[in-house]
Predict the 3D structure of the following.
Amino acid sequence: MTFLFEPWPWYVAGPLIGLIVPALLLLGNKHFGISANLRHICAACFPADVPFFQYNWKREAWNLFFIGGIAVGAFIAAFFMKNPEPIQIHPELAQDLAQYGVTHIDGMVPTDLFSWDSLLTLRGFVMMVVGGFLVGFGTRYAGGCTSGHAIMGLSNLQWPSLVATISFMIGGFLMTHLLLPFILAL
Amino acid sequence: MRKLHLPFVEAPHEKAARSMDTMCVNESELHHPWYYNLKFMAVGMIFGIVFIKAEIVSWYRIQEMFRLQSFHMYGVIGSAVMVGAISVFLIKKFKLKTIFGESITFTDKVFQKGQIIGGLLFGLGWALTGACPGPLFAQIGSGALVIVVTLISAIAGTWTYGYFRDKLPN
């Protein structure tokens, strides 16, 4: 039973995630893709007169149930299957973050960066609000995110999805190595 | 089991609005009560548990990925694609049907400039927040409630894209 509480290795997690692709297809011809939900939320709550949001979002309700399930599953794992050991991170990452005052290594996001207090700082605002905006704008502009392009698209051997996935990675490397040092220093 | 086969009627603008995006164009002629969607919630719950247990939604693991300090995330995504690709291959080869007997369909993705421009923008946000759209929901579920702000901002980003869509290079 200890494996339930230990962090799971990639060779357990990856195949389980891969199985979501056939699970959704077999349960109802649904394509794995999470960022579309952000569009459905817009279509449901603030469609305005934007043609991009004029469709019957209720037919995509399955996906909203799916993300609801993600939040519930995360709650179960975080509170009832919690790893009792402190999270292990690469020593160089810990050393680098410490330079910027990020020393509390705990949970899924560093509380020194992501908290209600830091939201009112320039650094916290950029990381949470600007970061979130880029995720929402970028995924829709790209027509999908890591699930829709990197996993579903690549599984279906779609070369535009490979282009998108490579672009995601390049964007991430640029942020981490060129911009993040300045943002963390704010 | 209640199963209604109704002819599929769709307003012309509906298809147009949907096809503006490579996703959500799959059709079903079945009309099920809402609780049939609970099975998708169950799949989502498994996904959410994996997200937390394998620390895929961890900001630190995303940083280690982009700093090439850990193989973990590459292993997760790589093996997920392998299993997904084999599954799609088998579904196509044996022409498998859904549990309700409907055909499983695939839509080819069309190349657009947005996959590069939008992809780069999403990559920047991914490294900042440590989250793609799915992990945002998982981070909130794991108790990091402040991430609700990031999620609202992501919804605002999607809305802004929809508003300016016609003026962007595509």
Remarks:
- Chain A touches chain B through 134 residues (CB under 8 Å).
- DSSP finds eight helices and no strands in chain A.
